[in-house]
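Quick illustration, no need to memorize.
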Amino acid sequence: MRIVLPGGSGQVGQMLARHFHARGHRVTVLSRSAHPSPWKTLSWDGRTTGDWVTALEGSDLCINLTGRFVNCRYNQANRREIVASRVDATRVLGQVIAGLDRPPALWMNASTATIYRHTLDTQQPNDEFTGVLGGGEPGAPDTWNFSISVAKAWEQAFDEIPTPRTRKVALRSALTLSPDQGGVFDVLLGLVRHGLGGTQGSGKQWVSWIHEVDFIAAVEWIVGHPELEGPVNLAAPSPIHNRDFMRVLRETCGVRIGLPAPAFLIEIGTRFMQTESELVLKSRRVVPGKLMQSGFEFRFEDWPGAAKELVKRWRALQR
């Protein structure tokens, strides 16, 4: 296949590029900053057309992952960049794909499981069929509502331009965990190893996650199943409470002590670290309804097995 990855220089993009390149597919990454890689990289600004358009003509698959990182304070300048980077890139891709003579058969666009409501209850989890989108939950901080508004605007931009010859799938991804340096798992493991991997906040918030292997397999599954369209949740079928998520990670890593971090300390710490508490404290209880209904089988359904494999590979990378 000919595969184009706009915004493919981030963790998930590099993960997919490595996988597809290793299997002999022709991979082109569109990036604001070129860097040496085994696959082709073209420059783009995520807003305007350019030479990169030729990469999409006659391609088989486009996976757009463009978006400014959200590990920052949500001040007005950062908010504008977070929204614009996602919406502008999605719109220009839609305009280009709609006008191509030979557009890709499938366009996947990044989205996020954060789009669903914050819930601490144990009732129905959020799938694509009956899940409740968030926004305006009682007591939810402004930053949480902002993240949900970003997700909604992102998907609206994805849907607004008709591409009748190109199937479209919005990837509502949970925490995507791989042992790569600087990734979410690497950060969480760093907390555990330094004795800071205790319960975060109340510990009742749900953590939705997906192992790298299953994320890649799900993308390939979507390629081969044309009935899958619209939003698709990329999350393991077993979300887990934060207190249990962190406990399993400590036990897997062989660390006995993990200092808890009450919500007020997280607020102070995230402000000091120039990030937002929403990334830790918001509850996400998301399940992969469409994937499961279509017959997809997860290799890592439960967190203990996934944590064990990830810790093992993380340690191997340190040698």
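The chain has one domain: 2-318.
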